[in-house]
TrEMBL record:
Protein name: Uncharacterized protein, isoform C
Taxonomic source organism: Drosophila ananassae (Fruit fly)
PANTHER family for the chain: GUANINE NUCLEOTIDE-BINDING PROTEIN GAMMA SUBUNIT
Alphabetic keyword roster: Cell membrane, Lipoprotein, Membrane, Methylation, Prenylation, Transducer
Encoding gene (name): Dana\GF12388
InterPro entries: G-protein_gamma (IPR001770), G-protein_gamma-like_dom (IPR015898), GGL_sf (IPR036284)
SMART domains attached to this UniProt entry: G_gamma, GGL
Domain of life: Eukaryota
Residue span, G protein gamma domain: 4-70
Keyword flag Membrane: yes
Location(s) in or outside the cell: Cell membrane
Pfam families on file: G-gamma (PF00631)
Length: 70
């Protein structure tokens, strides 16, 4: 009886998850692509991979100064 109860509880959890997933608002791929392209073009001035850094001091990926042995 305990196994049957456990199985029933698992099935209820699965059903609830499927209901939550079914309630999610869907978008077509073309809508999503258009929104992504709009976001990218609006924020391209803030993208350091496209514009570069204003100075090397601002760049967190710059090569660190080499260590000298005394």
């Amino acid at each position: 009886m305990d196994v049957m109860s456990s199985s029933l509880q698992q099935q209820r959890v699965v059903v609830e998850q499927l209901r939550r997933e079914a309630a999610i608002e869907r978008q077509t791929v073309s809508e999503s692509c258009a929104k992504m392209m709009k976001y990218i073009t609006e924020h391209e001035q803030e993208d350091y991979l496209l514009t570069g850094f204003t100075s090397q001091k601002v760049n967190p990926f710059r090569e660190k100064s080499s260590c000298t042995v005394l």
